[in-house]
Automatic annotation (TrEMBL), chain A:
InterPro entries, per database record: DUF1290
TM helices/strands, residue ranges: 27-44, 56-74, 80-103
Domain of life: Bacteria
Protein known as: Membrane protein
Amino acid sequence: MIAVLALLAGVLLGVWLDPTVPSALQPYLPIAVVAALDAVFGGVRAKLDGIFDDKQFVISFISNVLVAGIIVYLGDQLGVGGQLSTGVVVVLGVRIFGNVAAIRRHLFRA
Amino acid sequence: MTGQDRRTYAADFLTELFHNPLDPGYADAAERRRRAVPATGWRRSAPRAVTLVTLVLLGLLLAMAYRETVAAEPSRSKARAGLVAQIKQREAENAALTEQADRLRAEVLRQRDAALSGSAAANLRNLEAATGLGRVRGDGLVVRVADAPEKSDGVTGVGGTNLGRVLDRDLQDIANALWSGGAEAVSINGQRLTATSTIRAAGGAILVDFKPVIGPYEVSAIGPGQLERRFRDSAAARLLDSVSEKHGMSFEFRKVDDLTLPAATEPQLRFATPSPEPTAAPSGSSTGRGGSPSPLGGGR
């Protein structure tokens, strides 16, 4: 519950402060969002599994965002940015789907 | 570490990914916690606080991404709409200027005819007709060529190279055949050819005097009565006939009475300069480039 409130607080903060993203970082924002969603769904699933761990969650969140950003940056430098971000989205998407399926089983027993 | 065998990824990484999407770290941490004594005090609450901070950060990230996406979309479509509007406006300006130029040209023509004596004016008009600077009317020939229909594979939808396409070369050949058949004026799709006209290809388009023309192409010529017979006997007509037979390009020509060919756009004077003093050089400095009147190397 507190977690959801914290999330909402972040969203409100974002709307209220309206921070501008440096234009150099803008291409990585969508990938960062997908990576963050992966960490969040992993965390939710771990919570439902009863094995949630704060340290693990924080580290997975930060490293996911950073690694996804770095991979895409590297791809941009090598000229395969589009393909690499597709790869990142596919891998993270698969993980998100798997975790959401597990969450669904927990919540609806189906 | 107990989760060691889980952490070593199997050779088939994707299968592993599908089967076990959760970070193995969670299981490891749970295992560690089960064996360790439960933490108390700040050691328990600090990680929790960090998690909450992370979640706030996540919310911030989502809000930022949302705002970026929303902000990026209209600017993109706005830029597009702006460009479209600019193109439309320039086109309208261009049309208005062309109309004005035509009007002024007619005015100049009228003034000149009024100023000159009858024979000089007639002489000038004939020269203009020959060089493509004046509108001409007369009987002649219209040659129509069009690309063969694009053949595409029924399954893949991929078309091969269309051998029945009209090339710039074909239009050049037709124009040259018409000139050599005695044509006095030639135009392609309503664009008059002069001694300095070019017909060339750029990409997939054919440019006549650097303006694109699109098929079906209509080459109109005003010339003597034998023009049709001479054109039919020309090498260009025979070649195009065989291409149309083999590859489906459409090629036809017919005599047409009372054709009107427009004037060519005003040529750029390359060597002529305005005479400095009316008395110094009363004539001869504005004739531009002389040379052979036969365009495109066609013998005329």
